[in-house]
Design goal:
The chain has 63 residues and is an all-alpha fold. It is 73% helix and 0% strand. Helix 2 packs across helix 3 and helix 4 packs across helix 5. The protein is globular and about 30 Å long.
Length: 63
């Protein structure tokens, strides 16, 4: 359903690692796989992992 969100979570190391990065529960991140990553958390992760974000969401790492 949220293919790119799932790819991003996987690229960052999976549910457990993303939960630690965002200081939320593993259950919350698991829900993001179904519902999409909430905007605030996506913006935070995008800031920390810009190249990975650009590669997955925009197909580019040259920005």
């Amino acid at each position: 359903m949220h293919k790119k969100d799932n790819e991003f979570i996987d690229a960052l190391g999976g549910v457990t690692k993303v939960a630690k990065i965002c200081e939320v529960t593993r259950g919350a991140v698991s829900q993001w796989r179904q519902r999409g990553i909430p905007k605030a958390q996506l913006n935070y992760l995008r800031t920390l992992y810009k190249k990975t974000y650009l590669h997955i969401f925009h197909g580019s790492i040259n920005q």
